[in-house]
Amino acid sequence: MKRAFVIKSNTAITEFKREYLYSLASLTGRLDVVIRALIAALLGPKGIREEVIFYAILEGPPNPPLTLMAKGSELKYLPLSEEEVAKAIYTTSGGSNTWLKVEKKGLKEVMGEVISSGYKVIYLVEDGVDIGRYEFREEESYCFIVGDQKGLSKEDEEFLEEIRAVRVSLGPLPYLSSHCIIYVNTLLDRIDTSP
Ligand SMILES: C[S@@+](CC[C@H](N)C(=O)[O-])C[C@H]1O[C@@H](n2cnc3c(N)ncnc32)[C@H](O)[C@@H]1O
Q: Which residue's CA is minimally distant from atom 6 of ligand 1?
């Protein structure tokens, strides 16, 4: 089942410097959260997940918004350490990386793109409809939106309501963004492989 994951980070920086590479959690506005989400989205039990497109919308200083994008179907290699992914973000911002794209756009533009590509939009949020009640269909494509360490802003939630994103919950407890992505990937794999 084709799927896209979008993480919106209100704090992750939009200018990358070499000296940040080894202090991700403290100097980058939690780019580490975004990087863990990227690995969770694109890495599967058989290697790179060709069925996944990953977007990270960065809204931190000094130049928001920026969107990082990687398509599993176009990847030949996926770095598995946070440090290596951070290096790829650093080099892509200088224009010399091919697997990770960086573009000057925000949540609205990204959602416009995924909706026009036919994805159904699901906002993962603690107080949504239980995911066990949501009927996924093999022939459909789904785009899941997750917040960062603090969740989405009220403004983003209003926008998602406007575009009729379905609010879906993995339970009442708040899990890490990357854990939510792994859970959803696993659930959709089970649907894909069920007889
Ligand atoms: C660490 S949580 C956000 C923080 C949390 N809202 C808080 O109270 O601090 C990161 C994101 O993962 C998703 N998420 C976390 N737990 C979830 C759950 N139980 N069901 C659905 N989505 C969840 C949401 O998109 C959330 O914005």
A: 151
Distance, in Å, from the CA atom of 100 to the CA atom of 78, rounded to the nearest integer, reads 10
List pocket residues of ligand 1, CB cut-off 6 Å. Answer: 124-126, 146-147, 149-152, 169-171, 173-177, 180
Kindly give the residue spans of alpha helices, DSSP state H, lying in 43-176: 82-93, 107-116, 154-162
- Please report, for the domain that includes residue 129, its CATH number: 3.40.1280.10
- To test the ligand 1 pocket, which listed residue (36, 55, 148, 175) has its Cβ within 8 A of the most ligand atoms? 175
Cα–Cα distance for residue pair 37/7, rounded to 1 Å: 7
Give pTM, 2 decimals. Answer: 0.96
**Total domains in the fold of the chain:** 1
By residue range, what is the domain housing residue 148? 3-193
Per-block mean pLDDT, blocks of 10 residues, the chain (195 long): 97 92 92 97 96 98 96 92 91 77 96 98 98 95 97 97 98 98 97 86
